[in-house]
Sequence to fold (367 residues):
Amino acid sequence: MPIYRDKARGRLVFEFDRHIAGQRVRARKILPSTWTRAQADAYDRQESARLYAIATGVERPEHLIEEAIAVYLKERASQLKTGHNIEGELLLMFWAYQGKPLSALPDVCREYTERGTKDDGSPLAPATLRNRIRYLTSACRYGWKFHAMCEHDPAERVITPTVRNARQVYIDRHHMLMLCLACPHRPTRVAIRKAFYSGMRMAELRLAQVEGDTFVLPDTKNGSPRHIPIHPKIRSCARLALPDQSTISRHFRAARAALGADWLHFHDLRHSAASAMINSGVDLYTVGAVLGHKSAQSTQRYAHLATESLRHAVAKIGKKSPTKEKARVAETARKPAPILGSPPRSRTEHQRIMSQGRDIRAKRKAA
Fold:
């Protein structure tokens, strides 16, 4: 019987062992513990028909998610800066996609979203779930595009969790200087000032090269080089070498604790640089170029800060166009003066002529 009960596990098991077209075809799968005998028999009929179709050449064999991941890690992830991290993240999802075909990718992602947890059993953050699911879908799509592992995009029905973790924390120059005064470690003070006056990330501060009056980043997060003009306030300390990130973070946390600002993150200095530029009238496109954003969508998070531009736009509602007003004045100036004796062109002009006549008669009488 293809379906039997494993007494040790207490689970129904599907087992297929046939000789088809001169070759032996074997398959075995432990079925879910909640399945009834009727569900197991239905699965037996469906899976047996599929195996017969593959063996006789009627249907293509279905590749597993593990096969797509293996090809992706070997050919693509090894070329990425975060390739090692991707491999570790996918390994944490192994229990969800083990033995599953590419067609089951949407179900795998949905199950991981519902059941994925940390080591302590607490639920994973939406951003972590989103990133891991994106790694998984990228690997499966790579197998589909470059190795024809399936006929359709396996990730077209995948739903990723919605992430709303954008921080809206900004400080001004005064608070930045107070933070520097509270920090006794000079290299960390330099890092704080450079981050505020350049908008660079902490890792970029350590990698930035000084060429003339410009910070040059040969390689950035989005893979493109970036040039940032050096602000006059940090020109004297631009070439100072910075310690490792852990040292900077340790002294930064001590400084913010001294000010009672435990809510402040070092990366907030980058957001504060964007806020300062926008409040000074710099357009969003230029702000994005300074920060190194690859898409306008990344810079759009700061659009709500451009209140001055919005104020000017709202103030123009209902205003007369200065161009039209100038055109009306010029048109009036080009009109010829009325000829004496010609009939008045309007009631207003008639009243003006009558008033001039009364003034002339009054002057004659007075004389």
User: Anything to note?
Assistant: Strands lie at 3-6, 11-20, 23-30, 209-211, 214-217, 226-229. The first helix runs from residue 37 to 55.
